[in-house]
Amino acid sequence: MYNQIDSNKRKTVILMTIFIVFVIFLGWLYGKISGTGYIGLGLALIVSFLMTVFSYFSGDKVALKTSGAKLIKKEDNPYLYNIVENLTITSGLPMPKIHIINDPNINAFATGRDPQHASIAITQGALDKLRKEELEGVIAHEISHIKNYDIRLMMVVIILVGIIALLANWMIRGFIFNKNDRSKGKIGGILIIVGIVLAILSPLIAQIIQLTISRKREFLADADGSLLTRYPAGLANALEKISRDKMPLKKVNNATAHLYIANPFGQTKKIMARLFSTHPPIEERISKLRQMA
């Protein structure tokens, strides 16, 4: 567990460093081709710094707002609040903020930059359809993401991947509409092609990043959550109910899909859809949990 925490912290620093270097490189390229010199580089430094700070301190707010999650207090839902409180006490973590997503499907996610600034969001469908031990299994899974610092890593991925896609688009527009003579030569043509390739590949790159990081952490959170509740069957039963949900959540997008405990676009048996899913096959997760029981 401690190795996983250290690994996630290192990955967060590496991702943010790569992002800053990438933005600086774009600024240098743009300055070179537009003839603005180091102005582009200076702007890139400012943008990379501001966006990195924003992703670290406000990425969780973006994820919660995107999902339509509403913050609740203990008096709003004592049942849910007490379950989360008991599990966080058991885990030795601070109490996270609790949010409810008004959606009939069963799902949940955790977000934040560390255990002291964490939030858990649960769908109304999970509250309506899951028995107590099943709901405990789902919440314990999300608390494990908090404890292992998965939440920081995933939150940074959401923001940085989206910004990289926007920057690629910005680079294309800048090169295409730039009238400077430097952009008309061979180098300018190459840079325009590079920008177009980046814009085309950005969604695929984002998907690959999410797949690489997300699938492994789901298995780890399943195991850690089961250790927390001492009842793997609770989460396994919850996942079986989730597997029957064929419809996507009302408010979901590709950027935040990997945060959820299960694919928020609905479960599917199509090979290609499962191949590019941010989550491992739900049947495989259930099988591993059954073996732990």
Question: Could you write a compact summary of the structure shown?
Answer:
With 293 residues, the protein is α+β, with helices and mostly antiparallel strands.
| Strand line-up of the largest beta sheet | 1-2-4-3
**Largest pleated sheet:** 4 strands, mixed
What share of the residues lie within helices? 55-70%
Strand content: 5-15%
Which structural class matches the secondary elements?
alpha+beta
Residue stretches low in confidence (pLDDT < 50, at least 5 long) are none
Q: What's the SSE pattern? A: HHEHEEEHHHHHHH
Write down how many β-strands occur, each being a DSSP E stretch of 2 or more residues.
Answer: 4
Averaged pLDDT:
80
Overall radius of gyration:
21 Å
Total domain modules? 1
Structure description:
The mean pLDDT is 80. Helix 1 packs parallel to helix 6 (150-177), helix 5 crosses helix 7 (186-229) and helix 7 packs across helix 8. The chain contains 10 helices and 4 strands; from the N terminus they run H-H-E-H-E-E-E-H-H-H-H-H-H-H. Strands 1-2-4-3 form a 4-stranded mixed beta sheet, sandwiched between helices. It has 293 residues and is an alpha+beta fold. Strand 3 (108-112) and strand 4 form a beta hairpin. Helix content is 68%, strand content 7%. It has one domain (2-292). It has helices at residues 2-34, 38-67, 78-91, 124-129, 132-147, 150-177, 186-229, 232-242, 271-275, 282-292; strands at residues 69-72, 97-101, 108-112, 118-123. The radius of gyration is 21 Å and the shape is elongated.
